[in-house]
């Protein structure tokens, strides 16, 4: 939490003096958009805090000048673009934002994005289309899981992690044209192999349909969300598999944000309050009480949603957790995802 407070105070002041020099180039194509955002060198460490709608940069490079170049290449159906009709024109609107603090706080910088096209001949507004009200866009979803650096500002540059330090694990689901989705981590375990077997030795991290066990016995927690389709597990490194290759296996679920229950939740233990707390609505934390026993695994809408590809297993690794007191050196390998 101290890291977030520091980031929120220092970077907001920094951004006010540097954003005036930021270069933004927008190219509206037939059904997609390409944006290049040139970022001041002092903001390069905070590349992961720049968004187009709810999308992070699809590519980021550091230029010879020290500046950063964030590229956003997305379909207009992605990133929560708003489609509006004005006379004979069809408008797609969105915002580039810089958010050094949690998404519940206002963005420190907002740049409006707009693409304008001729209104298609014969186009009918959605509210006049009798079939549109029941369309929920349940096609294939894309899930991602990445390791961020300890400051939660960019993708980690190394997979070697000191014992006791934190390894922020960021998971997201690309919503595209779907109705808003809430990403949940149902179960996560650490193992020393990229594939789980029946006899695999594992270290439990999240169990009981979204209960972060490691928050009760350690200092791990869920960080406040930037948007519903992503979740950050702020996981404290552990002695399991010390010095070996470790893989984090997680069952992810994209769910209806309006329907939370004992079987669909993200809960962590808050030691100051001596109770389990619901990440997305602390006022409903009573549904986390079952984390101390066995949570209900049945859901009225479970079969309907989960049979349509809303659940996914992701593997993050290899990670190498090292005791700083050890003298052995390890060569870091790439952190990868096995979807």
List keywords for this structure.
2 domains; 40% strand; 5-stranded antiparallel beta sheet; Immunoglobulin-like; 9-stranded mixed beta sheet; 3 helices; signal; single chain; disordered N terminus; mainly beta; 339 residues; ZP-C_dom; 8% helix; 22 strands; ZP_dom
Count of beta strands: 22
Query: How widely separated are the two ends?
Result: 30 Å
Number of domains: 2
The largest β sheet comes out as: 9 strands, mixed
CATH architecture group name of the largest domain:
Sandwich
* Uncertain spans: 1-21, 124-138, 301-305, 327-334
CATH fold descriptor of the largest domain: Immunoglobulin-like
Radius of gyration: 21 Å
Class based on secondary structure composition and strand pairing? mainly beta
CATH class of the largest domain: Mainly Beta
Range of strand content: 35-45%
The average pLDDT score comes to 79
Helix content: under 10%
Strand/helix succession: HEEEEEEEEEEEEEEEHEEEEEHEE
Q: Looking at this structure, what is the CATH superfamily of the largest domain?
A: Zona pellucida, ZP-C domain
- What characteristic shape results from the CA principal axes? globular
* Tally of helical runs: 3
Protein name: ZP domain-containing protein
InterPro entries: ZP-C, ZP-C_dom, ZP_dom
Organism: Notothenia coriiceps (black rockcod)
GO cellular component, one term: extracellular matrix
């Amino acid at each position: 939490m101290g890291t977030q407070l520091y980031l929120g105070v220092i970077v907001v002041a920094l951004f006010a003096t540097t954003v005036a020099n930021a270069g933004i180039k927008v190219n509206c194509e037939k059904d997609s958009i390409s944006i290049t955002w040139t970022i001041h060198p002092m903001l390069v460490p905070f590349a992961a805090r720049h968004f187009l709608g709810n999308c992070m940069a699809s590519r980021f490079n550091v230029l010879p000048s020290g500046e950063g170049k964030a590229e956003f290449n997305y379909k207009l159906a992605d990133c929560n673009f708003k489609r509006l009709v004005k006379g004979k024109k069809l408008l797609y609107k969105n915002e580039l934002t810089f958010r050094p603090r949690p998404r519940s706080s206002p963005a420190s910088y907002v740049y409006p994005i707009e693409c304008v096209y001729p209104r298609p001949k014969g186009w009918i507004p959605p509210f006049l289309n009798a079939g549109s009200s029941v369309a929920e866009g349940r096609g294939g979803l894309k899930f991602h899981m990445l390791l961020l650096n300890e400051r939660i500002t960019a993708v980690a540059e190394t997979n070697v992690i000191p014992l006791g330090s934190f390894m922020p694990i960021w998971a997201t689901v690309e919503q595209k044209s779907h109705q808003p989705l809430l990403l949940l981590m149902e179960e996560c375990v650490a193992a020393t192999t990229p594939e789980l077997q029946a006899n695999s030795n594992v270290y439990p991290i999240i169990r009981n349909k979204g209960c972060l066990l490691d928050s009760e016995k350690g200092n791990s927690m869920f960080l406040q969300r930037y948007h519903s389709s992503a979740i950050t597990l702020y996981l404290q490194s552990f002695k399991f598999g010390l010095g070996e290759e470790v893989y984090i296996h997680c069952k992810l679920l994209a769910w209806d944000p309006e329907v939370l229950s004992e079987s669909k939740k993200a809960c962590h233990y808050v030691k100051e309050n001596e109770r389990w707390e619901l990440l997305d609505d602390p006022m409903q934390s009573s549904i986390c009480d079952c984390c101390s026993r066995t949570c209900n695994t049945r859901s009225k809408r479970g079969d309907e949603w989960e049979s349509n590809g809303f659940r996914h297993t992701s593997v993050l690794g290899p990670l190498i957790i090292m005791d700083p007191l050890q003298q052995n050196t390890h060569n870091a390998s790439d952190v990868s995802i096995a979807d």
